[in-house]
Amino acid sequence: MEKLTTIIFSIFIALGMTSCTAGNQTDERTITTPAEQQSSSAAENSNETSAENEASSGEGKTLVVYYSATNNTEAVAGYIASATGGELYELVPTEPYTSDDLDWTDRDSRVSKEHDDESLRNVELENPVPDNWEDYDTVFIGYPIWWGIAAWPVNNFVTSNDFTGKTVIPFCTSSSSGIGESGTLLEEAAGTGSWLDGERFRSGQDEETVTEWVNSLNLN
Ligand SMILES: Cc1cc2nc3c(=O)[nH]c(=O)nc-3n(C[C@H](O)[C@H](O)[C@H](O)COP(=O)(O)O)c2cc1C
Question: Which domains does the chain have, with CATH numbers?
Answer without folding.
Answer: 39-98+126-216 (3.40.50.360)
